[in-house]
Design a protein that fits this description.
Shape: globular
Structural class: alpha+beta
Number of strands: 28
Helix content: 25-40%
Number of helices: 14
Radius of gyration: 25 Å
Strand order of the largest sheet: 5-6-19-14-7-8-9-20-28
Length: about 575
């Protein structure tokens, strides 16, 4: 601890905090007496005199300017508005660690950890959002990027939540010279779309192969001088060049994911090679399992068959090696990374981690230093809020899948992959309609889902449905085509084309009054609308007022249902976060 905290050199960071009996909150102890503080902590000015500590209001991240931005550009870093948060930004008091396990943490019972995904993402957010060791100084560790309208300005809304976790191959930190491309600004090397259900009880973590051939759309990036620049898109490119190349920032990767899947990404979290080493060490090592012994001269991975605990260099070698498993492809490496993530989740939930304040402090410090996020979650306060909302997810209801792909038929000796249209389409539809891949979750959800209950009840006749259709999506003429289809093929003769919506929306919605519930259910059946699309108002209609159907970016055409299949394709690669498996 530094001189401002006045802690003993051998004292645990958690022991710097004591319980204030007047407020019931933990506060930083600024003397060595060991007494419980009953007064607010006091800071020192530059002369060394004690003065009352002022409570700082939350502030927005501020952009770096001048020479730092210019030097970053000269170094070839990923061009983005990376902003280092200043200590005290983000607002809000955070509860510290209890002294040596004195207090039974309610947050532990609530699992106040954000189970996100990626090579290190579960740990990153769990560490930065763990309610035990959130010092304001951690705000100074975070980097942020302004991705404009690619993401959400809110931490989380009422519906499903989608977070893109990006692991780059950029070389930072000592000992990482052997990984990635020398001088590279960083590719989107490891990518996982983490979809959290609207009721926050289940999640799907979909890995996206870096060698997927796809179209990268135009994207707008923010420059060092505050101006905006449009980076032109490209066709038939590898997914991993959606970041870093040609000046693309993480917002470009988010837009690429949306173009592929139809899923709008709310936030991103990005780490590089060094994060794997620092975080696996901070948590005390991660248990992995091998079906056979591995000695890889390229990654320097040297492990026996069976179970081993890896950290630091060994952990990085484990998630990076691609010549030791399966057919040595990136798809096999994805399976190994998913095993690592699942093991990390279990490690984070173990008593050894949750009951050790010092370990949690080290983990939080390492995590926030490794993490780059968008403005929407760009403070410890916001990450904590996100963690508390998502912390209810049980590991048995987190499912890992890999985007369904096949070898690129355009290559004589395939080194890239393309989408497997039917299977990928089904999986994407399940994500868009918020359908769980967890069988356990489905059983639990059947009896208690309030949202699903809106589809239960009587249905109106097609001829009695009154609906105005607006186009808030990307397909020109969608409203007119839908009205024509409803009238001519479905018998919904009282449907009207109201042209374009005031603004574009991501997901299709059907707004209706309580008295129109039977019409809404009938139209949902006809259109294939998920329960999450139905938005019931609080007041009833007057006369023959129509419902309002606004087509969103998820709308693919008249007659194409928005709901995904009830069950994912049987032969897609998947794994549960609560199950330990051995890499082959």
């Amino acid at each position: 601890m530094d001189g401002h905290s006045r802690g003993r050199a051998d004292e645990s960071p958690a022991d710097q905090w004591v319980l204030n009996p007047r407020t019931g909150n933990y506060e930083l102890r600024l003397d060595n007496s060991g007494r419980e503080s009953s007064e607010p902590p006091r800071a020192r000015d530059r002369s060394g005199a004690s003065r009352p500590r002022e409570r700082s209001a939350p502030s927005r991240p501020r952009d770096r300017s001048g020479s730092r931005q210019e030097s970053a550009a000269l170094r070839g870093e990923v061009p983005a508005q990376r902003v280092r948060m200043q200590p005290g930004q983000g607002g809000g008091q955070q509860p510290p660690a209890a002294r040596n396990g004195r207090r039974k943490f309610s947050a532990r019972r609530k699992r106040a950890l954000l189970w996100t995904c990626g090579v290190t993402a579960f740990v990153i957010v769990a560490g930065s959002a763990g309610a035990y060791a959130l010092y304001q100084k951690f705000n100074g560790n975070l980097d942020t990027v302004d991705v404009g309208d690619a993401g959400s300005k809110n931490v989380a809304g009422e519906g499903p939540l989608d977070i893109l976790v990006i692991g780059t191959d950029k070389r930072t930190g000592e000992g990482n010279e052997g990984y990635g491309d020398k001088g590279s600004a960083g590719h989107a090397d490891t990518n996982i779309l983490f979809h959290v259900s609207a009721d926050r009880t289940n999640a799907t973590a979909m890995s996206i192969p870096r060698d997927l051939v796809t179209d990268i759309p135009d994207c707008t990036t923010k420059q060092a001088d505050g101006s905006r620049k449009v980076v032109p898109g490209t066709r038939n490119a590898r997914f991993n060049v959606s970041l870093g190349q040609e000046g693309r920032d993480p917002g470009c990767t988010m837009r690429t994911v949306k173009k592929i899947t139809g899923v709008s990404v709310d936030h991103f979290m990005m780490v590089d090679f060094n994060a794997v080493k620092t975080l696996s060490t901070a948590v005390g090592g991660v248990e992995v399992c091998l079906d056979k012994a591995v000695k890889d001269p390229d990654s320097h991975l040297d492990l026996p068959a069976g179970k081993s605990t890896v950290q630091g260099e060994d952990a990085l070698a484990f998630v990076r090696t691609r010549h030791s498993f399966g057919n040595q492809s990136d798809l096999d490496r994805i399976k190994v990374q998913q095993q690592f993530i699942g093991s990390m989740i279990r490690r984070m939930k173990s008593d050894d981690t949750l009951s050790d304040p010092g370990k949690l402090f080290d983990l939080a410090d390492a995590a926030t230093k490794a993490l780059t996020v968008d403005y929407g979650i760009g403070s410890i306060n916001k990450l904590t809020s996100l963690a508390r909302e998502l912390g209810r997810i049980d590991t048995k209801n987190i499912t890992f899948v890999t985007m369904p792909v096949k070898d690129n038929p355009a290559e004589p000796t395939p080194v890239t992959v393309v989408l497997e249209p039917q299977k990928a389409g089904q999986l994407f539809a399940m994500l868009r309609s918020d359908t769980s891949l967890s069988e356990v979750k489905k059983k639990e959800q059947a009896a208690r889902s309030k949202q699903q209950a809106v589809l239960e009840g009587s249905r109106a006749e097609a001829a009695d449905i009154r609906v105005d259709v607006l186009n808030g999506g990307d397909i020109t003429g969608a409203a007119g085509a839908t009205v024509e289809w409803l009238r001519s093929e479905q018998g919904v003769t009282q449907s009207t084309n109201r042209a374009n919506a005031p603004a574009k929306i991501d997901r299709t919605t059907l707004a209706y009054a309580p008295a129109q519930a039977d019409q809404a259910r009938a139209l949902a059946d006809i259109m294939g609308l998920p329960a999450t699309a139905l938005k019931q108002g609080t007041s009833d209609t007057e006369g023959l007022q129509a419902m309002v159907l606004t087509l969103g970016a998820d709308f693919e055409g008249a007659g194409v249902p928005l709901t995904g299949p009830a069950k994912a394709p049987e032969d897609i690669q998947r794994a549960g976060a609560d199950t330990a498996v051995c890499a082959k």
